[in-house]
Every structure is written in C-alpha cells, then in structure tokens.
C-alpha cells in the first residue's frame, strides 16, 4: 500500500529565505505526483504536477523535483514571502487502472515578516 | 469557468438528521471524488465515480451514499448523521484517472451535534 510522508509537520522561516519542503513515498510505481497548497479554511489549490517521466516542474518561484527511484519529491520555494504561509500537501497517483491519489498529511509553513 | 463548486459551505446537523452535499464541475471531467479532511488524519477518500454511471467505495464509505447524477454533478448523502461525521468535506474532479491534474472544490464544513 502506497504511503506518503511529509516531515516536518510544521516549519517557520523568516521572509526572504529559500526553502525546501520534502515528500517521500513508499512505492515508486506512480503515474505522477501533485503538490497542493491549502490556506486555512479553504480548499486545495494545485501548484504543480510532475509526471513519472519528468525530473522537475517550475512555476514562478516554485520548483518541484521528482526522484522516483528513491521515492522522493521536493518543493523548492525561492525568496519566501508571508503570503506563502499555508499548508502544502503532496499526493501521488499510483500506476494502474482506477488509481487514486494518496495524500501526505501536509507541511504547515509560516513565513515571518 | 467556475471549476468545482460545492454547496453548502457550512452546515450544522443534529445527530440522526440527514442531508445531501452537492458538487458540480464545469470542466467536462469524467471522474469525481468525495474526501473528508480531519485534523491529524489527512484527506481520506469516501467515494468516487470513475465515469458517469459508476460509483465505488473509497477508504471510509460507511455512513455515506453517493449519486452521480450526470457528468457534471456528484452528490454525497448522509442518511443519519453522527458526531463522528463532523469534518470538512471536499469534492474533486479529474478529466480521467491517470496522467492528469486533479482539481478540488472549496469544501463544506459540517458539524454534527
């Protein structure tokens, strides 16, 4: 059974710092991995989708990498801002018919002004 | 293009009452999902519909029923609400399971007293 782990559960950094959020998964047979952002009391917003054949994806100040063989993904946030404060979740879609996303529990990020 | 919409946003029920949570998407997606999110438990899949006319149980289906009314709409029904069903409920959709990005609605916050 696929398991997705995000450690630490919470992170606090000063504004301007470059930071890396980690995600690990136990089964490397995946279609893709998706990073989401969730603001308090809100739904999940998709940030980046990386297919299993890709190594990384970029969107603005965000860069997500995927190392399928080691079961790891990282979300890199450059020049963090207080507006980046949110919970970041990663989810993997296992390979196979009718596969469904398996979610990590998220990392709550606080960027201090 | 509204994406995934959910109604209501908030609801308070007494134990034993019934209600239906509504979800609709305007992206012509084939697959739709219902999740619940609880502190410390992460997102758990309740039911999903891989395509119009099909529904299947997820990880935590007990106490719930679903209806895929048409391609756009997927409803979740609580027949006899229990305090253990106090949660935030999210609907999601994807064009079809596999290589694509999954989108979420804004959520329904349900309290059962």
Query: What is the beta-strand fraction of chain A?
Result: over 45%
Amount of helix of chain A: under 10%
How far apart, in Å, are the first and last alpha carbons of chain B?
36 Å
Q: DSSP helix count of chain A?
A: 0
Q: Specify the overall morphology of chain B.
A: globular
Order of helices and strands of chain B: EEEEEEEEEEE
Largest sheet composition of chain B: 7 strands, mixed
| Mean pLDDT across residues of chain A | 95
| Main sheet: strands, sense, barrel of chain A | 6 strands, mixed
Ends distance of chain A: 41 Å
Q: How many distinct beta strands of chain B? A: 11
| Assembly state (oligomeric) | heterodimer
What is the CA-based Rg of chain A, rounded? Answer: 14 Å
Describe this structure in words.
- The complex is a heterodimer of chains A (113) and B (113).
- With 113 residues, chain A is mostly beta strands.
- Chain A contains no helices and eleven strands.
- Chain A has strands spanning 4-5, 10-14, 19-25, 30-38, 44-51, 56-59, 62-67, 72-77, 86-94, 102-103, 107-112.
- In chain A, strands 2, 4, 5, 9, 10 and 11 form a six-stranded mixed β-sheet that branches. A five-stranded antiparallel β-sheet of chain A has the order 1-3-8-7-6, with no helix packed on it.
- In chain B, the strands form two sheets. In chain B, strands 2, 4, 5, 6, 9, 10 and 11 form a seven-stranded mixed β-sheet that branches.
- The A-B interface holds A 31-32, 34, 36, 41-46, 49, 51, 89, 91, 93, 97-101, 103-106 and B 4, 33, 40-43, 45, 48, 50, 56, 58, 90, 92, 97-107, 109.
């Amino acid at each position: 059974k696929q398991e997705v782990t995000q450690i630490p559960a919470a992170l606090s950094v000063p504004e301007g710092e470059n930071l890396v959020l980690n995600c690990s998964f136990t089964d490397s047979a995946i279609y893709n991995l998706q990073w989401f952002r969730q603001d308090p009391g809100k739904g999940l917003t998709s940030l980046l989708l990386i297919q299993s054949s890709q190594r990384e994806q970029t969107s603005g100040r965000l860069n997500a990498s995927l190392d399928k063989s080691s079961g790891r993904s990282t979300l890199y946030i450059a020049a963090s801002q207080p507006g980046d404060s949110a919970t970041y979740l990663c989810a993997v879609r296992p390979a196979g018919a009718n596969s469904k996303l398996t979610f990590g529990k998220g990392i709550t990020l606080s960027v201090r002004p | 293009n509204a994406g995934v919409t959910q109604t209501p946003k908030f609801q308070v029920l007494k134990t034993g009452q019934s209600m239906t949570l509504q979800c609709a998407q305007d992206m012509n997606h084939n697959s739709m999902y219902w999740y619940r999110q609880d502190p410390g438990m992460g997102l758990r899949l309740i039911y999903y519909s891989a395509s119009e006319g099909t529904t299947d149980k997820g990880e935590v289906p007990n106490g719930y029923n679903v209806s895929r009314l048409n391609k756009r709409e997927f409803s979740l029904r609580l027949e006899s609400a229990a305090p253990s069903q106090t949660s935030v409920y999210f609907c999601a959709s994807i064009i079809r399971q596999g290589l694509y990005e999954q989108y979420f609605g804004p959520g329904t916050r349900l309290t059962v007293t």
